[in-house]
UniProtKB/TrEMBL annotation:
<keyword id="KW-0288">FMN</keyword>
<feature type="domain" description="NADPH-dependent FMN reductase-like">
    <location>
        <begin position="5"/>
        <end position="155"/>
    </location>
</feature>
<protein>
    <submittedName>
        <fullName>FMN reductase</fullName>
    </submittedName>
</protein>
<keyword id="KW-0560">Oxidoreductase</keyword>
<dbReference type="Pfam" id="PF03358">
    <property type="entry name" value="FMN_red"/>
</dbReference>
<keyword id="KW-0285">Flavoprotein</keyword>
<dbReference type="InterPro" id="IPR029039">
    <property type="entry name" value="Flavoprotein-like_sf"/>
</dbReference>
<dbReference type="InterPro" id="IPR051814">
    <property type="entry name" value="NAD(P)H-dep_FMN_reductase"/>
</dbReference>
<dbReference type="InterPro" id="IPR005025">
    <property type="entry name" value="FMN_Rdtase-like_dom"/>
</dbReference>
<dbReference type="InterPro" id="IPR023932">
    <property type="entry name" value="CE1759_FMN_reduct"/>
</dbReference>
Amino acid sequence: MAERRIVALSAGLGTPSSSRMLADQLSAAARQSLQDAGHEASVTTYELREYAVDIANAMVSGFAPPNLEALINEVIDADALIAVTPVFTASMSGLFKSFFDVIDKDALDGKPVMVGATGGSARHSMVLDFALRPMFSYLRARITPTAVFAAPDDWGAGTDGTGTLDRRVRRAGSELLALLGDAPAPAPRQNPNESLPFEQLLAQVQARPA
């Protein structure tokens, strides 16, 4: 049976980060759901803060530096995506949004996605429905019905697995399994340079060392 590959993205800025903690919980739940269903599963987690400069350069230059391009390809080639952002100024973080701004608008077409967010108050949970869902819907991703928000009071509550956060995380993991069960096979990717505008191709040539 083919292994299911999941990529998890955390846009947390600190170390440790509550966004990374939530991403790890969601990853573990997704992996467990797949394994319980008899599938092999692997999860690779990336911290977007490590790509912040590359993301900014891609925003202004129109093309991704090699490290960022490799991450984008990992996201595109994954069977499913887990994406977690902290809440800043009543919305997703700028770093999180910028990463998805530099991805081709068709890159996530049909991809199963589980989303999560962290914030200082449960009032910020509306970000899931008013910011994250619309963005991933625009990208035509397939989003789990359950999106998970974690406020400070959620951490450590019900450490025996009975807390509301744990239940939401497990439910989201089961829903990701259901989406993977009937997810369409990813289409073969074309050479990334085949359909680029001339200005972007020229910028890549000029950026290469002599």
